[in-house]
Design goal:
With 420 residues, the chain is of the alpha+beta class. The chain has helices at residues 17-33, 47-54, 59-64, 83-92, 95-98, 137-154, 172-185, 192-200, 214-218, 229-244, 289-292, 307-316, 333-348, 362-372, 382-387, 413-417, and strands at 37-38, 44-46, 66-69, 75-78, 102-111, 123-132, 160-165, 250-251, 263-270, 279-285, 300-306, 326-330, 353-355, 376-380, 389-394, 400-404. The protein binds histidyl-adenosine monophosphate. The site of histidyl-adenosine monophosphate has 25 residues, from strand 6, strand 10, strand 11 and helix 12. Residues 81-83, 112, 114, 120-121, 124, 126, 128, 130, 258-259, 279-284, 302-304, 306, 308-309 line the site of histidyl-adenosine monophosphate.
C-alpha cells in the first residue's frame, strides 16, 4: 500500500521552500522594525479555547475544527487560527504586566477541515501579528500600514486593502435587529444557508456568494450606517491617519469576518487572482476577547496572512524576461567569427547581449532580435567588414548609425550606455 499525505495537507519541497523562507525573513525584519517580537505557541489547545473565542455559531467551530479526545479523555483541537492561542498565552503568563502594549508575531501551521481547492487547504500556514493593550485608532492605522508595507516588501501584485467597522456591543445589537428585520421581509428569496444564518449569525449572510441572494443583500442595511458615536469617531480617526500617509484602501461595508471576536475595525487584503479565495490576509480589532477568555480587559488588534496564498500570488506575478541591450546579426563566416568575439566582449563588459548560433538569414536573425526585445542590433556582413563600417540599429525608433568596426568594441559602449 502506498501511503500518501492527507488530502489538503501539502509538502513544501526544496525549490519551493526558499520562497517560504523569504517571506518569513521579510516578516521578521519588517515586523521587528515596528517593535513586534516572536511568540511560539502549541499547535494543539483545549477545544474550549476556540469555541469561546471564535464563536459557537461560526463555520470554523461548527464544522471545520480537527477535534479529538486524547488518551486522558481531554477534548483537544488542532488550532484553526493563532489569535486565540496567543491571547491564552499572554493571559496565562501575564505578559501584559511586563509591557502595557504587547506587540507579538507568530508563524506556523493552522488546521481547518474545509473543502480543499486552490488557495484553500486543511493544513495551511499563517504569519500573524497581535498588538494588545491599546484601543487607540493610531494602532489600527499603524498595523494596516505595516500590512501594506509587507505586501510592498515582498512585491505582492495587485492587492486591495479593504476596510470596514463592525461596531461594538453598544451599536451592533441594534444593527443586528435591523438586519434581521430586513432579511425576514425577503426570507423566501434567500438560499437555505442564509435562511439558517438569519437568526444564528445574520451578519454572515452578507458574505453569501449565491447569485439569487445578491440583489437582496445589496439593499441590506450596513453596519457603517449604524455605528454609535464612539465607533464612528474611532473609524474616522483610523481613516484620517491612513489618509495622512496616503495609504491606499477602500471601504467594503459588506465585509464580515468568519470569527466572532471582532469589534470596530475589520480589514482584508484581497486579490481577484485566486478565484473564490480572495483574502490574502485579514484581521481586525478585538477589544473584548481577553475579557471573554476570563482575563482583564485588554483591547487588541491583529491580522494573519495566508502564506500559501501569498506564495501563489508571487508565483503568478510574471517578471518580464530581460531584454538584450545588443543583438548581433551576422552573415558569412568571417562576420560570424567577429560577431562571436564581439558578443563575448560585450557580455564581459556587463551587458546582456545575444546572437543567433545557427547560420540563418538576416531576416530570421532580425525576427529573433525583435522577439527578444533587443534594444540595438549590430548588422555585420562581408561588405561591412571590407568597408570597416557596420550598421547599428536602434530597434524602437528604427534609426541606424554607422560604427567603425576597427574601433569596436569600445565605440559601442557610449551608444549602449545611452538611455532609450
Ligand atoms: P482568517 O480570516 O480566518 O483570520 O484567516 C487569515 C488568513 O489565513 C486568510 O485571509 C487566508 O489568507 C488564510 N487562510 C484561512 N483559511 C485558509 C485555508 N483553509 N487555506 C489557506 N489559507 C487560509 C484569522 O485567522 C485571524 N486569526 C486573523 C487575526 C489575527 N485577526 C486578528 N488577529
Amino acid at each position: 500500500m502506498k501511503i500518501t499525505a492527507i488530502k489538503g495537507m501539502n509538502d513544501i519541497l526544496p525549490g519551493e521552500v526558499e520562497l517560504w523562507q523569504f517571506l518569513e525573513q521579510t516578516a521578521q525584519q519588517l515586523f521587528g522594525r515596528y517593535g513586534y517580537r516572536e511568540i511560539r505557541v502549541p499547535v494543539v489547545e483545549k477545544t474550549e479555547l476556540f469555541t469561546r473565542s471564535i464563536g459557537e455559531a461560526t463555520d470554523i467551530v461548527e464544522k471545520e475544527m480537527y477535534t479529538f479526545e486524547d488518551q486522558g479523555g481531554h477534548r483537544l483541537t488542532l488550532r484553526p487560527e493563532g489569535t486565540a492561542s496567543v491571547m491564552r498565552a499572554l493571559l496565562q503568563h501575564r505578559l501584559y504586566q511586563q509591557d502595557p502594549l504587547l506587540k507579538l508575531y507568530y508563524k506556523g501551521p493552522m488546521f481547518r477541515h474545509e473543502r480543499p481547492q486552490k488557495g484553500r487547504y486543511r493544513q495551511f500556514h499563517q504569519i500573524g501579528v497581535e498588538a494588545v493593550g491599546s484601543a487607540a485608532p493610531l494602532l489600527d492605522a499603524q498595523i494596516l500600514i505595516m500590512l501594506w508595507d509587507f505586501g510592498q516588501a515582498i512585491g505582492l501584485p495587485e492587492v486591495e486593502l479593504q476596510l470596514n467597522s463592525l461596531g461594538c456591543d453598544q451599536c451592533r445589537p441594534d444593527y443586528r435587529q435591523a438586519l434581521i428585520h430586513y432579511l425576514q421581509q425577503h426570507q423566501q428569496q434567500l438560499c437555505p444557508d442564509c435562511q439558517r444564518r438569519l437568526h444564528s449569525n445574520p451578519m454572515r449572510t452578507l458574505d453569501c456568494k449565491v447569485p439569487g441572494c445578491q440583489p437582496i443583500l445589496a439593499q441590506a442595511p450596513i453596519m457603517l450606517d449604524h455605528l454609535c458615536g464612539t465607533c464612528e469617531e474611532h473609524f474616522q480617526a483610523v481613516r484620517t491617519a491612513l489618509d495622512d500617509v496616503q495609504a491606499p484602501y477602500s471601504l467594503n461595508p459588506r465585509m464580515v469576518r468568519g470569527l466572532d471576536y471582532y469589534t470596530k475595525t475589520a480589514f482584508e487584503l484581497v486579490t481577484d487572482r485566486l478565484g473564490a479565495q480572495s483574502a490574502v490576509a485579514a484581521g481586525g480589532r478585538y477589544d473584548k476577547l481577553t475579557h471573554d477568555l476570563g482575563g482583564p480587559d485588554l483591547p487588541g488588534i491583529g491580522f494573519a496572512m495566508g502564506m500559501e496564498r501569498l506564495i501563489l500570488l508571487l508565483q503568478q506575478a510574471t517578471t518580464p524576461a530581460p531584454q538584450p541591450r545588443l543583438f548581433i546579426a551576422a552573415m558569412g563566416p568571417s562576420p560570424r567569427r567577429l560577431a562571436f568575439k564581439l558578443l563575448h566582449q560585450t557580455q564581459s563588459q556587463g551587458y546582456y547581449a545575444d546572437m543567433e548560433p545557427e547560420n540563418k538569414s538576416l531576416k530570421a536573425q532580425m525576427r529573433r532580435a525583435d522577439r527578444l526585445g533587443a534594444h540595438y542590433v549590430l548588422i555585420l556582413g562581408e561588405d561591412e567588414l571590407q568597408q570597416d563600417q557596420a550598421q547599428l540599429r536602434h530597434m524602437a525608433s528604427g534609426e541606424q548609425q554607422q560604427v567603425a568596426i576597427s574601433g569596436m568594441p569600445q565605440n559601442l559602449w557610449p551608444v549602449l550606455d545611452a538611455t532609450g
